[in-house]
Every structure is written in structure tokens, then in C-alpha cells.
Amino acid sequence: MTLINLPQDQQRAIKAVDVRSLEAAVDKCLREEQVGPVYELGLRECGDYVPDYAQLLSKRKPSAAKAASDQQDKLYREWEYLKMQALCSMREFFRDGGDGIDIPKSFAVRPSQYGGGLNNFSCNFWQPA
Fold this sequence. Notes:
Elements: H1 8-16, H2 19-32, H3 36-39, H4 64-95
């Protein structure tokens, strides 16, 4: 085992670090995937033997299972958003005096003319395109 001789100022800086604050900051960094909370602790004064926390870890390519799971989550969120848009559209249709007999069994949503995504007018089947 090797002994590390640190200068007095680095030893004082290391002793001054609150371990609980450090653990909380590391946990927060891991949750948020950022290094910001660790900067507040002033670890630069601790010297070269403290891991270089300023460098972000390289992001690894997600596994095929993780990518598939992320895709499923994205599709689920998109489906939930579309469902909510359709329900709000139905509410608006009835508020404007629409009759339930005029509601089609299915209809195609219209993408926004500004960017092609869905917006709050995409499900308004009774409005002209």
C-alpha cells in the first residue's frame, strides 16, 4: 500500500468536506445526470487525488432492450397525448352544439401546418382541413 503525502491545505480542504452533503450531491448528480451539485462543495481545493468531477462521463449507447423500452414509452406517451386531444376535441364539439350522430366512427388526424406535429386542432374532425 502506498502512502499519499498531501500538503496541509489539501488535508484541511478534505477534512472540511461534509460527507453527508457530498453523498447527497453525488446522488443528485446521478439522478439528474449533471455535475452541478458537486461544484457547490468546493472540491477543487482538495487537490489532484480527488476524482476529476468536472468531466462528464461519456454517454454509452443504450442497449437494444433499453432502446426498445424507450421507444415503447415514447409511443405510449404519444398515444396518451392523442387520446387526450381526441377527448378534448369531442368536448369542444359538444360544447359548440354538435350532435353525437355526426361523430364518425374513425377519422384521420391532421398534422399541424407548422412543423407537421400534432396540435390542439389536429383532432377537430368537424372543421374543414
